[in-house]
Amino acid sequence: MSHLLNGGRVRFPGVSADLWELQFDSRGTALAGVSIAALATAFAVDRCKTAIDMGRCSGLLAAQETVLLTHCHSDHVAGLIAWLSAHTRRHRGRPTRVVVPRERRTELLAALGIWPDLDGVRRRVDLDEALVGASPDTTIELADGGSARAFAVRHNTAALGWAVTTDHTSRPALVFAGDGTVEPFRDDTALLDSEIAVVDCSFVDPGTRVAARLGGHGHLMDWIELLPDLRCDALVLAHLPPETTAESILERLPEDLPGTATIVPWVAGPR
Ligand SMILES: [Zn+2]
Asked: What's the whole-model pTM score?
């Protein structure tokens, strides 16, 4: 109908499916966000007022009070500038915290300290206080009784995974593997024991498994092979290549999936 507005002088663009913030629920735990390799990864666990990575910002992400960074590659942190600006303005007075692998804290603080026209943010929040360094086994208390524990992963830069617990049970509601190879999870499959495990699936094409491992990333076949040993309820295949469609993933999955986990490719559903 939009073409009829104002005699056809007002028109609206269509909504492209790949711009949607995707969302998934399992047993009352809700995950929302975007994750496209090399472009942007940013998830929200609204229940704990927590974001994991901030490759881009959105209204939902701006409302989160803690950002747990897995690493500082630009597709995981580029939205921090927008988040700091929107969060400290639109949610003024709320906690503002960015947790970063300890080895990168000094550089990230310096970058935010000199970013042009971030003066309003620097007046509203003490960045030195807001940036918290983390190492494997660091535990961060989150809103609503939640907590996050960092664990080691194998990427091509300083990187962490995060296990997020939303109540006082020991089993994490969510585990974010961040970017990295499958090896730490092959060595210890219990790392992914959770309601929702979000893993790096940057490579999906046959013949690219070695390239994936050498580049510090996961491959679809790695995760399919690991399925019989995984105890997560849902395995989210995140960080998929930009051109990925639901159909291209479905045609690469075996008819009889081993194991019990539900597979959730983080891409808009079949059209
Ligand atoms: Zn990365």
From this structure: 0.95
